[in-house]
Amino acid sequence: YTEAWDADKTSIHVMPDTPTILLAKANAANVSQKLYTQAWEDTKKKGYDLRADAIPIRSAKASRDIASDYKYKATHEKEKGHYIGCRTAKEDPKLSWAARAMLLQNDRLYRKAYHESKAQIHIPVDAMSVQAAKECQTLVSDVDYRQHLHQWTCLPDQNDVIHARKAYDLQSDNVYKSDLEWLRGIGWVTDGSVDVVKAKKAQELLNERLYRTRPEELKFTSITDAPDVVQAKINALQISDV
Fold first, then answer.
1. How confident is the model at residue 200 (pLDDT cuts 50, 70, 90)?
2. Which residues fall within 8 angstroms of residue 155, CB to CB, at 6 or more apart?
3. Alpha helices (H) in the chain, listed in sequence order
């Protein structure tokens, strides 16, 4: 029964052209030290060796820096004396408008690829997330919930499945009430048993007639009004409109 499963566990089928594999290959090529220094190694094999700190190399670097600095400042030197009288670029209307237009253009170009691709969703049918979503939808479906599921998503002899079955048996209403159905009709309680005596004592404690005494059954006499009550009555008579 488990021979096919044991054979399938040791075989892994991965397509060589999946996006994950292609991305891994590209990352491996980017971080490869051998590919990074391949051009330098090929140059060294051509028969000459030119060190990076040689005098001609250093002179060429210095000349390049000087020329680059000159070209970088050429436009600035030509524009000297032609600046407007604004303290900052934000005070110039043309510069502010150009900066605003540049921001709008950059935002449009930044969102262009998103707007073109937001309606195009490419998800493999057999992706793990799709399969998991289908399984979750099957589990929460009301139709499948009300009938016995025969499609197992895991092996029936796994430890967690066996533990779940035992938990279901313990929580099952039929199993829980099986002892009650077996004992129904065979019980017998005598008048002097502990349960009967306990019930009688509880009934006596909860008896309203024995617990409370009605006021009309008590013998009492009226008391004389206190001085503050007499003074209150006199004040009420004095301020009465009648």
1. confident
2. 2, 5, 161
3. 3-9, 19-30, 33-36, 38-44, 55-79, 93-117, 128-140, 142-145, 159-171, 173-176, 178-183, 194-205, 208-211, 227-238
Q: Which two tokens stand for residue 180?
A: 């009650």
CA-CA-CA-CA torsion sign (29, 32, 34, 40): positive
- The CA distance from 161 to 170, in Å, is 14
Q: Which residue has the tokens 């094999």?
A: 45
What is the rounded distance in angstroms from the CA atom of residue 90 to the CA atom of residue 96?
Answer: 5
pTM of the model: 0.18
User: Which range is least confidently modeled, 5-19, 158-172, 180-194?
Assistant: 180-194
Three-state secondary structure call for residue 219 = coil
pLDDT of amino acid 27: 92
Sign, Cα dihedral of 91, 93, 94, 97: positive
DSSP state of 224: P
